[in-house]
Amino acid sequence: MIPVKAIALAAALALPTLAAAQDAKDAVEARHGFMKMLGINMGQLAGMAKGEIAYDEAAATLAAANIVALTQYDAPALFVEGTSSEDMPESEALPAIWENPDDFRASFVALREAAAGSPDAVKGGQGNLGPVLQKLGGACKNCHDDYRKDD
Fold it and tell me: Could you say which residues bind heme c here (predicted)?
């Protein structure tokens, strides 16, 4: 009977660890999805700016509005302890995120500010996309330079 109790106790103690591991994997998967959605919308705007995609004001406005909506999400909350590139091979998040949490969070605020007004700013022609992309891309780059593992 003792071995059964020992196994049950070990299993009960392991459950929080398994749940935390699943939470960590979920957090990484969620932030990958978040970044993918940002990338899809940025890609649409960039394609139009480069002339690879025909400029479509409605589509550009929608892509910019999607970026604004995404920046309203509390994405830094997806960067939970134990999900750095040193902790998980599928993570590109540098440990600097947890060493400088206020600066990391400020990077997302900067992205939100760069996105503000972009749905109106992309209207009126292909030439209006460049300045919007420079602001957005600059905010992305600043964060990636400090907090994302190089490919």
Answer: 140, 143-144
